[in-house]
Design goal:
14% strand; 3 helices; 97 residues; 2 strands; globular
């Protein structure tokens, strides 16, 4: 595919204790790349599709959204409030111990 056009960006939130880093997409998805992109760009769906894990009816809309056109394409950033249900809070507590 050739040399990368840009370096992999660093995300300051990954090192900020106010955020929780969740590693995703380590499993194989048997679908086209555009389906993966659609899933990640659709920030409205967690409220309706994942209400028992991290989606929340308390946060039905984005807290903020920014889109910027760059020379490489579009840069999109959205913040959607999520919840940690009791089971997830227990899992996090066990992981910290």
């Amino acid at each position: 595919m050739g040399e990368p056009l840009k370096d992999i960006p660093e995300f300051s939130e990954a090192f900020d204790s106010q955020y929780r880093l969740i590693h995703e997409f380590y499993e194989r998805w048997n679908c086209v790349g555009l389906r993966v992109m659609e899933n990640k760009l659709d920030l409205a769906h967690p409220t309706f599709v994942h209400p028992t894990t991290f989606g929340s009816e308390e946060h039905p809309v984005l807290e903020s959204m920014e889109m910027e056109e760059t020379e490489w394409g579009l840069h999109y950033r959205g913040i959607l409030g999520v919840e940690n249900p009791k089971q997830q809070q227990q899992n996090l507590k066990i992981a910290e111990d």
